[in-house]
Design a protein that fits this description.
Elements lengths: L1 H13 L3 H4 L3 H24 L5 H11 L4 H12 L2
């Protein structure tokens, strides 16, 4: 009789509908989708990030006073290739 009771409990567990799939999927799938989206967006932002050109950096350094006019002109000639 005990075997019959155990079998019926197992049968009930097997045929419990949506519970057999597992409710964890309702948490795991959206979480993975969000992480995938966030990762792609983060990588895209890094790739598309604009880097200033060497000429722009040189001009900024001159304006800030980090280099004098002679050094600016020398480096400008180097950048222009003349």
């Amino acid at each position: 009789m005990q075997k019959e009771e155990k079998n019926t409990k197992k049968d009930r567990k097997k045929s419990s509908g949506a519970w057999t799939i597992g409710w964890g999927w309702f948490v795991v799938v959206p979480a993975l989708a969000f992480l995938s989206w966030a990762t792609r967006k983060g990588i895209k932002d890094v790739i598309e990030e604009e880097h200033p050109s060497p000429l722009t950096i040189l001009k900024e350094r001159y304006v800030k006073g980090e280099i004098d006019r002679n050094e600016y002109e020398e480096k400008l000639k180097d950048l222009m290739g003349t």
